[in-house]
Amino acid sequence: MRIRILGAGVAGTAAAALLAAAGHEVELIDEDFAPPALGTSLALFPPAQRVLARIGVLDAVSAGATAPREGRLVGRGGRVLATLPSGDAMLVPRPHLLACLRRALPSDVRRRRIRVQDVRPLRRGADVLVGADGLHSLTRLSGWGEGARARGHGMTILRGITPLAPPEISETWGGGWLFGITPLTGGGTNWFASVPEHRAPDREGDLAHLREVVGGARAAIDTVLEASAPARTTVHGLFTVPPVRPVREDVVLIGDAAHAMAPNLGHGANTALSDAAALATALDSAQRIRPALARYAARRHLVDQGWRLGSEAMLRAAMADGSSGGRDTVLGAAGRVLARCPRGARRVAGRVPSDPRVGP
């Protein structure tokens, strides 16, 4: 089967590796194949780790990962609401994950570096076109129309790294803002923040505004921000994709192109890897393409939309302002219950503090 994949991020590269290994003729297209500029971390849970094992890169990815045992959820005023286990997740710098996936690509995968402005010609000569082209997917806009355009949430995401060890592992839900701290492979700190939409002329101004919003709330946050620098910080808006069924004719969407979600459950990369594996399984030995793609949609659509909706609900809870006192009371009570039931806590957690990786 001739399969053309647009987008060489996590979803597209994983799909290319799996489909080529199954004997398909695969072409992978991207504008530049450049690695991410900043090595912020992604949380990968056991289902995603099983996909990495299927590709043959789990050991290599794990070698560059860190695996904290737990993290604290902290509410307004510094009150610890819950201590959550990591759900057996590992934290992986995005550049390292992509490098491992790209090294796993079979040599017969054709890589083509072009800037695509119209996806329709890409369907010619291909049995399947896979749109793995991210949040602002041209594939999705072309096949699903303007109603499928990504939507903003009126928030700004900042994320960065520092060379200092993290003072703690936590996610703080303030009054209308969020700040997370996780370890970075090699001993540094990975941090992320969500605030109401605000853009300064440069990243120095963005960091200054963040310090105005969250500064003084907690000592650990101040420590991280004191070590932060514009060159090690990225800033972007928060966008998500409205619900779309991921298959039309011989075109299929995977990863953020299909269901870009809020970052608050930390599952964007996980669903991307699961999509890639499910697509490869659906197309394995398929005699007819469209029934195979329908099987893929049946397997992944509701699951991915569940994560999308859950992430958006968590976003609203995390960013609550006036109602945060009641929210913190409820979460504190839930945290005390989970502390007395570690096995249940692991099931509920299924996550470490989230990584806001949804950007333009």
From TrEMBL:
One of its GO terms (molecular function) is monooxygenase activity. Residues 1-16 form the signal peptide. It comes from Brachybacterium halotolerans. Residues 126-304 form the FAD-binding domain. Keywords: Monooxygenase, Oxidoreductase, Signal. This is FAD-dependent monooxygenase. It comes from the Bacteria.
